[in-house]
Amino acid sequence: MLPRLDAEETLTKIHAGMMSSGLIRKPDLRRALTKLEKTAGGAKRSSVKATPNMLASAGIAVVIVEAPASGVSDG
């Protein structure tokens, strides 16, 4: 896996050098910068609500408490 990461980093450095020297056309430069900004910002991920089984598998105890009757008020 490290050779792949090294190759990606090297390509990124080469690409950055080309962008800064003006060897890339403006539309390609804009596309590359947009992609880099999106990558740097991180992709938006939707979170999944944890189920009691998920929590239990992580070692978190789940206690389900019954709601009081509708006529009872706590204050």
Explained architecture:
With 75 residues, the chain is mainly α. The chain has one domain. It is built from 3 helices and no strands. The termini are far apart.
Alpha-carbon distance between the termini? 60 Å
Mean pLDDT score, rounded?
A: 82
Percentage of β-strand residues: under 5%
Helix content: 55-70%
The number of strands is: 0
Low-confidence stretches: none
Largest sheet: none
Find the structural class using helix and strand composition.
mainly alpha
The tally of domains stands at 1
> Secondary-structure element order, as H and E?
HHH
How large is the count of helical segments?
3
Q: Write down the oligomeric state.
A: single chain
Global geometry:
elongated
Keywords, please?
single chain, mainly alpha, about 80 residues
